[in-house]
């Protein structure tokens, strides 16, 4: 009875905004279609593109060099996702469940650094991690090293930079999911004699799964398209598929191939996500 | 609205070629006089403080400045249909590409009398032999900035960038033509070669060099501070950026290596379909004025193609090593040309090197 | 018996796990703010460099105030950011509602489209949107930037709000409906307050994405509509001016003042629930 009504009122609400949504859908979908069309086109020598049916662009993707880059990108994106989860979850938990009155302030404080240009923050990391920078000096002061070591322009720096860049994408959905967590459930479990750890794993964590899933998706997917961090913090020594696609549209002036790469990337990632969602249980993502 | 509308507009988009054919030739707008406006599309910080206000005061034309980050992005935007700009500042090889893809319009030299200020060495360069479409703006060389205090004076050669003694302290440019170019120069080849064997050798040389490098960097925002901070001992840099380091400290030196190095030139051009071509010509003429040219160079610390401006440059700048080049140096400088199809080959090779 | 609900902020911090959590959170905040401190530091540099320290000076703050182009760019970024975030949040929230509570044909396609939008590399979105705008005859300018920003941030909002909606208890909504509330009332007075933290989180994410966007904005911007990132990223070639650091510092301080000064508004309503 309640379910019946429940379904129709949200639909009515959405129905109210259909024209606006459709109009925006146009700006959202049409570019995707354009790129699909381009991926079958032929690039002009000096840029631009002629449309047609040229599947050759997709065949070019199966070059060992490019496949290696795609695989490397996936691995890095996966590692990034795990690290963001490991580091982001405790922080989101702290803010949502221990922040009390200050939680809105605390979550805003997480986001404020990200309103400064990524470019500036990357240059700041170079300063911090350079030979004469604070990090090296601290290490030497603490006696861990006795001369400056290479901290910046390494694969590790790229990893750190990516985690740094994508943490909000993990923290925000986790916070959104954890915040609704009913404190009384947890207290009930504890009253009944469950230990803190037990309570966390059997009650809190499973209920926060929608947040974990959303956060993982929001980190993994855009990570795969990242191109700025490997350039600024990695000395351009790590080539990811984002760099490759960027390069095809700009320096190589091969829009058709760039589009094909983008479509392949999208297909692979969306496929992976749909598989993941199905496996974890779509009902975790759905309403009751 | 509705499906038909969506389908219709989608089809019309797909039917269009984005490499639009805007009006060609000068004098884009209709019959009447142009509005007193000008849109200047350039890199941030590539004009002196006095440049734009001076022009506005002199002509009463209001200038709107917009910014792009690279030649390639500029090209992609213009080709995809981004219009509205009156003056752009493409680099040499990009002028060549733009001419071939009809993205810029021929200049009316009668409206640019100050062209006479441009020195002989800077006229009629290979990418635009009659200066039909472009006029030089600033120029420079690409060479090596190094820490003379730490490693002593270097001979004028690229070998130091391959020297294992400097492992981990060398930085190359994140620019396919410049870095492939460095390898080609060292081997004595042309920077514009398309010979696969020569390119194989260059690629191998770069792969050999890679373990010694700290990374591939931008010139000003990447290698320059790294050399100044001591993270790098040698940096592959554009001359203007090197001169900044030299002016700040005498610990450094800049060389233009033998047997070859790049000479690059940034130019002013007018996009095809510009709305205010007349004002654009006025602006270009204004930039070529001796005083304006001098103020520009004294700010950017690059080299100027404007001979009439030379006497008014800062003495300190002119005295910097590598700034004023002896005539025989010009002979070993090469200009990067666009290579059409072969560009993709270069790109792929560079990606191989970086991925190695 | 149990502990009281609500109560003082950091209750139970006597326990070791809670202390460890607090320490971890503090370290994380330090990690997030480390580059910001460096950035602020360099806004007081005496030379043009933002990476090589040469001495102390406040000249860049003076330069900032007098540089109309930077201030204009900042203002434009704010206008675009706030407008695009508002629109994207509304649409994203409603989309999340529709997707979470409905089973309809083509749902998988809709889901895929949402994910696909987050995948697409920026250069691809930028070029294709430009081509589309030109073909549709739209004049490039602030409007096209806002449209583009909404288009690429909507999915992020949707995904975040869905995380909040999932597993949400519908009984209060159903009770309200049983008592005669119409859909709009139910939404505004029951649903929205319950999902508000999710909506705010989505809005925060959308704004953050919009404010620092470069690639997409570059392609769809028109003459005179250079946002702050367009100016800043273009500075790579000739050097980022410490005036930008000064701007970032001013914004940072202003935001902190607003948050801490206005923290009463943000106080969580948790303590007032029965």
How is this structure best described in words?
- The complex is a heterotrimer of chains A (288), B (356) and C (274).
- With 288 residues, chain A is mainly α.
- Chain A has helices at residues 2-16, 18-39, 56-61, 64-98, 103-111, 118-129, 134-141, 155-179, 183-191, 196-207, 209-224, 228-232, 241-249, 255-280, and strands at 42-43, 49-50.
- With 356 residues, chain B is an alpha/beta fold.
- Chain B has 2 domains: 32-139 and 265-319, Periplasmic binding protein-like II (D-Maltodextrin-Binding Protein, domain 2); 140-264 and 325-355, Periplasmic binding protein-like II (D-Maltodextrin-Binding Protein, domain 2, 3-Layer(aba) Sandwich).
- In chain B, the strands form 2 sheets. In chain B, strands 4, 5, 6, 7, 8, 9 and 10 form a 7-stranded mixed beta sheet that branches. A 3-stranded parallel beta sheet of chain B has the order 2-1-3.
- Chain B is globular and about 65 Å long.
- Chain C is mainly alpha-helical and 274 residues long.
- Chain C has one domain (69-264): Orthogonal Bundle (MetI-like fold), CATH 1.10.3720.
- Helices cover 70% and strands 0% of the residues of chain C.
- Chain C contains 12 helices and no strands.
- In chain C, helix 6 (142-165) crosses helix 8 (183-211).
- Chain C is globular and about 70 Å long.
- Chains B and C meet through helix 1, strand 2, helix 3 and helix 8 of B and helix 5 and helix 10 of C.
Report strand % of chain B.
Answer: 15-25%
Q: Estimate the helix proportion of chain C, in percent.
A: over 70%
Mean pLDDT of chain C: 85
List low-confidence stretches of chain C: 1-14, 269-274
Largest sheet of chain C: none
Tell me the Rg of chain C in angstroms.
Answer: 23 Å
Measured between the Cα atoms of the first and last residue of chain C, the distance is 17 Å
Structural class of chain B: alpha/beta
Q: H/E series of chain C, N to C?
A: HHHHHHHHHHHH
For the record, what is the CATH homologous superfamily label of chain C? MetI-like
Please report the number of helical segments of chain B: 14
Helical stretch tally of chain C: 12
Q: Tell me the greatest interface.
A: A-C, 111 and 120 residues
* CATH-defined superfamily of the largest domain in chain B: Periplasmic binding protein-like II
């Amino acid at each position: 009875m309640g379910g019946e009504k429940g379904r129709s009122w949200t639909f009515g609400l959405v129905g109210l905004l259909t024209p606006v949504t459709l109009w925006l859908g146009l700006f959202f979908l049409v570019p995707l279609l354009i790129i699909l069309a381009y991926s079958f086109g032929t690039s002009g020598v000096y840029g631009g593109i002629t449309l047609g049916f040229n599947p050759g662009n997709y065949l070019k993707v199966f070059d060992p060099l490019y496949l290696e880059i795609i695989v490397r990108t996936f691995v890095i994106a996966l590692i990034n996702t795990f690290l963001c989860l490991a580091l982001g979850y405790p922080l989101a938990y702290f803010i949502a469940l221990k922040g009390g009155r200050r939680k809105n302030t605390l979550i805003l404080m997480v986001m404020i650094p990200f309103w400064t240009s990524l470019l500036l923050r990357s240059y700041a990391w170079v300063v911090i991690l350079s030979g004469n920078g604070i990090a090296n000096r601290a290490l030497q002061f603490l006696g861990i090293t006795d001369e400056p070591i290479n901290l910046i322009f390494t694969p590790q720096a790229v990893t750190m930079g990516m985690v740094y860049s994508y943490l909000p994408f993990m923290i925000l959905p986790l916070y959104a999911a954890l915040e609704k967590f009913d404190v009384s459930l947890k207290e009930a479990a504890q009253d009944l004699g469950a230990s803190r750890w037990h309570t966390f794993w059997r009650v809190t964590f499973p209920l926060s799964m929608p947040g974990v899933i959303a956060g993982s998706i929001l980190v993994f997917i855009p990570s795969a398209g990242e191109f700025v961090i490997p350039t600024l913090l990695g000395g351009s020594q790590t080539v990811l598929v984002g760099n490759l696609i960027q390069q095809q549209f700009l320096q190589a002036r091969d829009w058709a191939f760039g589009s094909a790469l983008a479509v392949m990337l999208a297909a692979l990632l969306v496929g992976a996500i749909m598989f993941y969602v199905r496996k974890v249980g779509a009902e975790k993502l759905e309403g009751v | 609205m509705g499906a038909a509308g969506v389908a219709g507009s989608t089809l019309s988009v797909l039917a269009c070629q984005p490499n639009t054919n805007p009006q060609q030739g000068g004098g884009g707008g209709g019959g009447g006089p142009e509005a007193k406006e000008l849109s200047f599309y350039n890199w941030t910080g590539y004009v002196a403080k006095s440049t734009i206000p001076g022009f506005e005061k002199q002509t009463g034309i209001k200038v709107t400045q917009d910014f792009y980050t690279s030649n390639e992005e500029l090209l992609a935007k213009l080709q995809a249909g981004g219009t509205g700009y009156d003056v752009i500042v493409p680099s040499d090889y990009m002028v060549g590409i733009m001419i071939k893809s009809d993205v810029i319009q021929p200049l009316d030299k009668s409206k640019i009398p100050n062209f006479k200020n441009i020195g002989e060495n800077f006229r009629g360069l290979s990418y635009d032999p009659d200066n039909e479409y472009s006029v030089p703006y600033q120029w420079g060389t690409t060479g090596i900035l190094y820490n003379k205090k730490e490693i002593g004076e270097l001979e004028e050669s690229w070998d130091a960038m391959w020297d294992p003694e400097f492992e981990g302290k060398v930085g190359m440019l994140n620019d396919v033509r410049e870095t492939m170019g460095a390898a080609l120069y060292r081997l004595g080849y042309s920077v514009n070669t398309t010979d696969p064997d020569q390119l194989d050798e260059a690629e191998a040389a770069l792969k050999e060099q890679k373990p010694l490098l700290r990374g591939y960097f931008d010139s000003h925002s990447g290698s320059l501070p790294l050399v100044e901070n001591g993270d790098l001992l040698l940096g592959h840099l554009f001359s203007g950026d090197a001169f900044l380091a030299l002016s700040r400290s005498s610990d450094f030196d800049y060389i233009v290596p033998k047997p070859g190095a790049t000479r690059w030139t940034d130019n002013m051009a007018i996009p095809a379909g510009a709305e205010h071509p007349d004002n654009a010509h006025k602006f270009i003429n204004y930039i070529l004025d001796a005083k304006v040219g001098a103020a520009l160079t004294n700010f950017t610390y690059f080299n100027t193609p404007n001979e009439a401006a030379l006497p008014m440059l800062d003495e300190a700048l002119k005295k910097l090593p590598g700034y004023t080049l002896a005539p025989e140096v010009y002979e070993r400088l090469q200009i990067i040309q666009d290579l059409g199809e072969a560009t993709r080959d270069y790109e792929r090779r560079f990606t191989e090197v970086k991925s190695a | 018996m149990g502990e009281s609900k609500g109560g003082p902020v950091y209750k139970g911090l006597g326990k070791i796990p809670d202390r460890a959590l607090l320490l971890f959170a503090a370290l994380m905040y330090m990690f997030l703010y480390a580059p910001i401190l460096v950035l602020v530091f360099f806004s007081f540099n005496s030379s043009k460099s933002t990476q090589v320290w040469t001495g102390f000076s406040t000249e860049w703050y003076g330069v900032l105030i007098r540089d109309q182009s930077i201030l204009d760019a900042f203002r434009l970024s704010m206008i675009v950011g706030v407008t695009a975030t508002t629109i994207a949040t509304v649409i994203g929230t409603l989309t999340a509602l529709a997707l979470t509570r409905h089973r309809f044909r083509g749902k998988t396609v809709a889901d895929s489209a949402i994910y696909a939008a987050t995948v697409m590399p920026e250069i691809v979105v930028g070029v294709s949107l430009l081509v589309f705008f030109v073909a549709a005859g739209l004049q490039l300018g602030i409007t096209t930037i806002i449209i583009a920003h909404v288009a690429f941030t909507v999915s992020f909002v949707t995904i975040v709000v869905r995380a909040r909606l999932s597993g949400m208890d519908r009984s209060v909504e159903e009770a309200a409906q049983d008592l005669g509330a119409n859909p709009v009332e139910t939404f505004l007075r029951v649903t929205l307050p319950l999902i508000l933290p999710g909506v705010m989180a989505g809005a925060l994410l959308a704004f953050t994405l919009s404010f620092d966007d470069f690639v997409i904005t570059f392609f769809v911007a028109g003459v005179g509509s250079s946002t702050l990132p367009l100016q800043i990223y273009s500075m790579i070639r000739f050097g980022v001016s410490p005036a930008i650091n000064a701007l970032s510092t001013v914004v940072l301080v202003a935001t902190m003042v607003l948050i801490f000064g206005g923290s009463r508004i943000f106080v969580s309503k948790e303590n007032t629930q029965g």
